[in-house]
Fold this protein.
Amino acid sequence: MAHALQWLRSLIFIVLMYLGMLVMGLAYLPFAIASRRYAYKATHAYTRYVRWLATHLVGLRSEIRGEVPQDEVVVAAKHQSFFDILMIFSVLPKPKFIMKSELRWAPILGFYALRIGCVPVNRGKRAQAISKMKAAVRAGQAEPGQLVIYPQGTRVAPGVKAPYKVGAGILYDQLGQDCVPVAANVGLFWPKRGIYRKPGVAVVEFLPRIPAGLSVAEVTKRLEEVIETHSDRLMAEAGHGNGSREG
């Protein structure tokens, strides 16, 4: 009975989450078209609304740990579900993402993503995606801010091992900026697929920054070690086995 009630709350939560996206997206639209500043205001308002709604409707609290960067950096984050994107976005002052190309066509979401300077890439064509990322950086397509990239290239469920790709390292090298790794346990509560949202404490942790100047290979290795170790610790803290990953 309790599980069924939580499933129903989760369904209502999802409906209200997307309804909120529609209402806020349309309400801010004229202002966001006129000024990128309002596009940021809209996205911050929406992500904080979803965090509030998750806490009060499905019992999923969200906690941000570590020092949130305020300057121009590359943010290399663990990606387990849509919720970790929202959590990161809610606290970074000027975030922009390397995102899947097809998201540009998503109603509301696509417009705001492009408006704040997100860079769409075709992740199915690795060499082309990397070239496009580098070109976008050189052209200064996006506003100054925090460029968020997921080194594993996609959402990876808790307990699953997936290799770290070189895209984050290439952008770190291209930009000559520090890189801030981010660990997470969010997928334990908000799965990649399905309706059910589990109550608990979802954590996103900003880890000590990696200074600019390492090689692509060095920073890629460092990111994998640091992000995976801390994500495993956060998952273990939340009661996920012993925190180890499975192949």
Notes: Confidence is low (pLDDT under 50) at residues 242-247. Residues 188 and 239 are 9 Å apart (CA to CA). The domain at 61-237 is CATH 3.40.1130.10 (Glycerol-3-phosphate (1)-acyltransferase). Helices lie at 2-34, 36-58, 82-91, 109-115, 126-139, 167-175, 216-237.
